[in-house]
Amino acid sequence: MAITRHSLSSRSLLATAAATAFPVSRARAQRPVIKLGVLNDQSGVYADDTGPTSVACVHQAIQDFGDHGFDVEVLVGDHQNKADVGASIARQWLDQGGVDVICDVPTSSVALAVNTICREHNKVFLNSGAGTADLTGSQCTPNTIHWTYDTYMLSNAVGGAMVASGGDSWFFITADYVFGQQLDRDTSSVVQRMGGDVVGRRAYPFPDTRDFSSLLVQAQASGAKVLGLANAGGDTINCIKQAHEFGLNKTMKIAALLGSINDVHTLGLETAQGLMFTESFYWDLNDRTRALTARIRPKLTKPSQLLNMVPVGNYGAVLHYLKAVAQIGIPLAKISGRDAVAQMKSMPTDDDAFGPGVIREDGRKLHPAFLLEAKKPSESKGDWDLLRLVSTTPADKAFRPMSEGHCAMIKA
């Protein structure tokens, strides 16, 4: 299959409105073309967790899919973690750019905006990066698949494990936007349901906060056993670094409610050791994940670009989407995103990142969740050998029951 690659638009252009893409090569005109738009944070606090790595994973999915008689173009946009910028890029892609599917879209406020736009245009939305469980709940649509994780999964796995091990009093530091608010809410519910207590919480402006010292002092003074970080990416890294500077890690357990191998790599095992978090992918889980990592790793351009669940979620989602397109044909796939999504739901999933799985009627992709712990420096055998598997939550237990999501597509 020929792949048409596009370079990134400049940040200044993206800040004003929508992304424009500059083709490096042209798809063969005589062959039909599917256009994919990768919309994420290419330059901010989530860039290392998604950004260029997600783009590399999308290209790997296209390569692994092979040639099925049509070409695939990939456009890339930087939404800067701003809903208005993301919405503007999405509208330009769908109105003028002929884009058939938008994928990734971390930052829940941006994802919810794009979710609505894709429904209005009857195009496909494959979300990997956003955490809001509303995408398969109150904001579910027949055009959206939520592939990788959500706030329910994170709170269920991390919060439940911490309380069960004695961490029964919590203080939350929360990014003040949809994702952080929902993660705080969902984890608090788990803690309280298991008999624990939330003794305090503080929200901070996102994405404009770098100094967390005053919030950490309040957390330390609260007497809580667990510091719950309801944030992600660079914010999580900064919180953990500053917590260690204050010695907070000596009196509290730190729960990164959305952590990643990238965070551990950036912090170093001397600082990160013992940190616990949940992912639905780890590169060293089995032969299939190791083989996929070996294929993608040469495409990564920076040492900070390690494979975590979000970019690899784009690999799984795009690969399954292309299989669905091959089944229903290019004309129908381009005319109706709803039909393409319906075909995706009707087919069992299987890829080297997540193994076998299914997509529920509400758009929720199901697979196991893995509780991971950062190793001690003495336990690591290499740059990427950073985590150990603590426990596995099976696919049918990892995500919110469909009956509790209040998705309007689901009949009672």
Number of strands: 18
Question: Main beta sheet, described?
Answer: 6 strands, parallel
* Average pLDDT reading: 91
**What strand order characterises the main sheet?**
1-5-4-6-7-8
Which term fits the overall shape?
globular
Task: Report on this structure.
With 412 residues, the protein is of the alpha/beta class. The protein folds into 2 domains: 3-149 and 286-367, 3-Layer(aba) Sandwich (Rossmann fold), CATH 3.40.50.2300; 152-284 and 368-398, Response regulator (Rossmann fold, 3-Layer(aba) Sandwich), CATH 3.40.50.2300. Helix content is 39%, strand content 20%. The protein has helices spanning 11-16, 51-65, 83-95, 108-121, 151-164, 178-193, 213-221, 233-245, 261-267, 269-272, 287-296, 309-328, 330-335, 337-346, 395-398; strands spanning 3-4, 6-7, 22-23, 33-40, 71-78, 101-104, 124-127, 144-146, 169-175, 197-204, 226-230, 253-256, 276-279, 349-351, 355-359, 365-366, 369-374, 387-393. A 6-stranded parallel β-sheet has the order 1-5-4-6-7-8, with helices on both faces. A 4-stranded parallel β-sheet has the order 10-9-11-12, with helices on both faces. Strands 13-17-18 form a 3-stranded antiparallel β-sheet. Residues 1-28 have low confidence and may be disordered.
Short description:
This protein is an alpha/beta fold and 412 residues long.
Attribute tags:
single chain, 412 residues, alpha/beta, Rossmann fold, 2 domains, six-stranded parallel beta sheet, four-stranded parallel beta sheet, 18 strands, globular, disordered N terminus
